[in-house]
């Protein structure tokens, strides 16, 4: 089984690309979705213990938590030290389940693949990219996003140029949906073809 790590900086089209793999029948583990599940269950009490007042009805209230960690790098690091291992464990269960089934290819959608040292957990890396102006326009179109927030997020991520250098595959999402879908199908064919 091949584990393809899918990553890319904010606003590069990673979620859309992950959906294209899923639509093509490739199982995808979504790290962001795993965090949502953890916030609603397993991790809620631990988050509350670290940051009192950030849960509501036994679930992490993302807005309350964001207010605590958004401008506090130490608090953000503490949160990441709690959550990242739990997400890795969740992804490990996903991979093992598919290994037992004999699934030929799975995708781990990991926004911070390089930043969290996750490259050793994947066989190949796909980076989604787009020109800076396209990225900026997409991100600033999001609700509650400001130029300042965008710059802070970018500053915490490995630069796009560095990610591209370390990739086995690249998809430029600024070329449109059809081009991205064709690229996804080419990658699937290459990784699942029997030599």
From TrEMBL:
Instruction: Please name the InterPro entries in this protein's record.
Output: Depp_CoAkinase (IPR001977), P-loop_NTPase (IPR027417)
Pathway per its UniProt entry is:
Cofactor biosynthesis; coenzyme A biosynthesis; CoA from (R)-pantothenate: step 5/5
Q: Which SUPFAM superfamilies match?
A: P-loop containing nucleoside triphosphate hydrolases
Summarize where ATP binds, as residue positions: 11-16
Q: Which reaction does it catalyse?
A: 3'-dephospho-CoA + ATP = ADP + CoA + H(+)
Q: Where in the cell is it found?
A: Cytoplasm
Keywords carried by this UniProt record = ATP-binding, Coenzyme A biosynthesis, Cytoplasm, Kinase, Nucleotide-binding, Transferase
TM annotation in the entry: none
GO MF terms, alphabetically ordered = ATP binding; dephospho-CoA kinase activity
Query: A single GO CC term, please?
Result: cytoplasm
Biological-process GO terms, alphabetical: coenzyme A biosynthetic process
Q: Please verify whether the record's keywords include Zinc.
A: no
Top-rank EC class of the record's enzyme: transferase
The EC number of this protein is 2.7.1.24
Describe the task this protein carries out. Answer: Catalyzes the phosphorylation of the 3'-hydroxyl group of dephosphocoenzyme A to form coenzyme A.
Give the family from UniProt. Belongs to the CoaE family.
Matching HAMAP family, A to Z?
Answer: Dephospho_CoA_kinase
Indicate what this protein is called per its UniProt record.
Dephospho-CoA kinase
**What organism is this sequence from?**
Chelativorans petroleitrophicus
